[in-house]
Amino acid sequence: NLLLPDGVPPERQWARFYIKIYRAEGLPRMNTSIMANVKKALIGDNKDLVDPYVQVAFAGQKGKTSIQKSSYEPLWNEQIIFTEMFPPLCKRIKIQIRDSDKVNDVAIGTHFIDLRKISNEG
Predict the structure, then answer these.
(1) Are residues 44 and 22 in contact, defined by beta-carbon separation less than 8 angstroms?
(2) Could you give all domains of the chain from N- to C-terminal order, each with its CATH number?
(3) Could you list the pLDDT tens digit for every one of the 122 residues in the chain?
(4) Which helix (DSSP H) or strand (DSSP E) does residue 52 occupy?
């Protein structure tokens, strides 16, 4: 296969990648949109709590955890499983904590895990 980088064997096996999501701490207040401010002014609703979930992207695939309603310190204890050829051509995993919203989900924080830093040589 001409598209494979040097050093990657042409015959690769399928592998499962397990990403375990445990919890998050100290999430910021997120309800600062215009609609949230209008809602506060009209009906006095002053809930600044987040509805967080974690979205993981790896090798063109996406997975996400359940939504933890109104929590600054959510506890998931969930795992996301990806099936991909080994060794993967993708060199990093994108992990993003997002605030679930009826109109548009907002990213709270993003982190990339470099697979070369957490895996053995070869």
Answers:
(1) no
(2) 13-117 (2.60.40.150)
(3) 557 777 777 788 899 999 999 999 988 876 555 555 555 555 555 556 789 999 999 999 999 999 999 888 999 999 999 999 888 888 899 999 999 988 888 899 999 999 989 887 76
(4) strand 52-58
Residues 85/106, Cβ–Cβ less than 8 Å = no
The pTM (predicted TM-score) of the whole model is 0.79
- Residues 54, 113: contact at Cβ < 8 Å? no
- Burial profile 26-38: b = 16 or more Cβ within 10 angstroms, e = fewer: ebeebbeeeebee
Rg (CA), the chain: 19
Measured distance CA(111)–CA(24) in Å, rounded: 13
